[in-house]
Queue: 3 jobs
Job 1
Amino acid sequence: MFRARASWPDPHRGRSIVLVDKPPKGSDWAFEVKWDGYRLSVHIEPGRVRIITRGGYDWTSKFPAIVDDARRLAVQTAILDGEAVVLDDKGRSDFGMLQRALGRLPSAVEAGAIVFYAFDLLYLDGDDLRRLPQRERRRLLEPIVAGREGAIRLSEEVQADGEEFLRVACAHGLEGIIAKHVEKPYRSGRGGAWQKITCNRRDSFVIVGYEPSTVPRAIGRLLLAATKGDSLVYVGGCGTGWSNQESVKLRELLDTIKTDKPAVTLRRRGAVFVRPLLVAEVEYRAWTEDEKLRHPSFKGIRERSDDATVYSLDRGQRSG
């Protein structure tokens, strides 16, 4: 389950996307839909294609359709930055459906349903493009993937009023939008040149345990934590967002990493504690005054070792 880290070119550690409250204004900003999936880079090399996660793990075997389609692109070498998603019947990305397609949760969704939306181009036929402004990288990306209907597609970009675009995105049930400064180069880490504005609050929290359900072999509540300094702090439990079948599958997964040493200071009768190796994607309304999640709903899981998006109580936000 927890795979070894792959060796890969140092250049792409992934530009972080900073969460902000409102879309930026001005003609230097372009906007895209915020996709709800796994951030990946597709490395096209002579004789092979590799798919690498933000944490540097080789997930090539998980995305055979994307690998096959990448071989058809008219390039010798390239690195595409983008998001792997599964679309629902209304064309919206659904993280839960993606996890089911990857076999993490039970479903009839097949791996072939996964689509990679490319939104940046870091290398092309031996040239490092990261120093170029966003608009130039975009100009080089579009003829490679625009108009395709296969497993690799272009994440459409619009230049519009950000607040109006956000309003339309939220009205259509999307997670939010991404704003990108068209004059900025590509730099890994946090910087503010890429910003995300969400319709609802949604973040990642470390799973530190669970409470069993009254339903046999199922989970009643996940016990969640955020980071604070170098420690983990309990921020509440989440008991909604899954079917009974998914709950049983999730409990089976967590039971493989049980521990007698809780990662947080918490006394709760009947709780089962686990090693802090997984994070839960959670949608919620707000925070209580004592720093607990209000009305959280489970959306999916990720491996902590491959995800730099755990919510920080110090910063009051995450980057992703």
Job 2
Amino acid sequence: MWQSTTSNMYAWELPTSLEVGGCEYKIRTDYRVILDILAAMNDPEIFEPDMTEDEKRQEQIMTMLQILYIGFDNIPPRNWQEAAEKACDFIDCGIKRDDRPKPRTMDWEQDAPIIAPEISKIAGRDIRIGETHWWEFFGYYMGIGEGVFNTIVSIREKRRKGKKLEKWEKEFYQSNKKLVDLKVRKAERSEEEKEALRELLGIKK
């Protein structure tokens, strides 16, 4: 059973490697790498339909390890669980989180055109150019204040809870339904699409 543990990472540094089994292993730290991992972890369509839930979970974890660790092949199988725990801590930015599932109020892919400019404004540069450490990127994301993105998330949350929208929120929603409404994930991909996605994410059949 894979379980995340409390991180011991030093909060004032941007980690570029993780210690597993007493050895340091370099990791890919750019935020786009982590977003690829999150996409894989939340996309059941990339796995074989006859897999059990446990098998899918194990495949998700192996995918995360293969993407994140530059030298994953050098990590002994006996240390894979520790490697997964350290990877989860890194992705969570060293913050202990409540494991209870939460309703989806944003989508990194769908909301990218809105989030990227707001994060770039906070960063003082276009974060789409060059690499940005995941922790740095997430810090910028957490610093997003009043603006279009927060308005969209607020309206999504109110609609989810059945709360009444303010007049200006109703007008905003009517004018921006495509931005506000979270897209339903595609129910089924073609085998060609699945295979291309597996190859992109490094998933071995």
Job 3
Amino acid sequence: MDSRPHVKFLKTMYQVVVNNFLAVVPVAAAAAVLQRTSPEEILARAWETRPVHWLLALLLAAAVAKLRRMRRPKDVYLVEYGCFRPKPCFRAPIATCLEHAHLMPYLIDKESVSFAIRLLERSGLSEETCVPDAYHYMPPDRSLKASREETELVIFSAIDDVFARTSVKPKEIDVLIVNCSIFTPTPVFADMVVNRYKLRADVKNVNLSGMGCSAGLVSVGLAKNLLQVAPPGTNVLIVSTEILSSQYYVGTERAMLLPNCLFRMGGATMILSNSSERARFKLGRVVRTVTAARDADYRCVFQEEDDKGNTGIRLSKDLTTTAGHALKSNITVFGPLVLPASEQLLVALSLLKQKLLSGGAKVRLYRPDFRTAFEHFCIHAGGRGVIDEVQHGLGLSDDDVEASRMTLHRFGNTSSSSVLYELAYIEAKGRMRKGDRVWMISFGAGFDCNSVAWECIKPAADADGPWADCIRRYPVQLPEIVKDI
């Protein structure tokens, strides 16, 4: 991007003129009409109008305004969010992971051990990422009991955190949405939460599974649809997590070893409402794109058994490319809804140029600058490759993706909850201001790509969140990767 002062000035002037064009034209037209008509003529015409006509005009205007308000969907707000912060005893330092890799009875060939070591060294994860207690056993404890213990620790801690941050009480929750992809016990997570917090008997509850890392923002879209038709003052509690204990892969397939190395323990909660009282963010556009019609995308993240009968999640080597294609499809819908007119005009002119010029396929399409629509970006911390792909595709700077990279470094890939750890990072650094806009992007099995826009109403009063004990040390310099795995 050109940084010369005069180029920046011209671009700023262009944006001001184009973005305010629709507001300026009616004012200019009205001014032109008034300039041709004297004040005396305007007053004379007003006196000539019969009172009944004035009354009808006022009634019509009031009816139109009322109808517009009734037809407009209710606004949805984020009241508060909370994140699980694991204790240091759950840490999985790289040295410990490497020692376990050598001791695992199923990793008998040196190639599998060497692959796991290279993956960990290049993953972008720090020495502070955490895994459940079950992973600290040799071999890992994949029992139902271990999974339940992890579930109760992560989910209940995150819910306790969000209730401690707001004046909303458990009895005020009208709808409960819980998402976890792999582990689905009976009773389900939603029932566990209802039982623990003694929610009302008439609470609506939904339990989502199998959607991978996109489930958190899918839940936001579901909550939005419910709140827009619910009575005023309705509150929705969303819980997003991934329980790891039961899904540890004990085979040697490289594509199925990836989740063991990248996924870490984590969870987050949100309270959404259709009342602006106590709200901190206003929900904007929500766009979900599903590319499961393509076989390659459908099998990109796939749970199956290897040739020895060991169950695990197979991640395709084309995962980052698939994510890029899904993001492109998502932006096609999301972009026109959020971009200012100045950027949309440049995109339209670029498309027109491609159509009109001979050899139009060689014309490079204009890539819109989403920094004109958002001040902050929360990209799912699925791995270095995913963040790199999105950064390159959107033309973002290193500062724009700092929250994503630092979340991956400190907490690892916490699946559907990662975007909220990133939002907490931005607020802990004191960078969030009233009126700032946030774009959350997530990817998940299916293959799904989700975009959610927020506008800040009230920044956090403090940084007492998951980053409280380490925010002063961030950002950190990440080592360069010479060659991808």
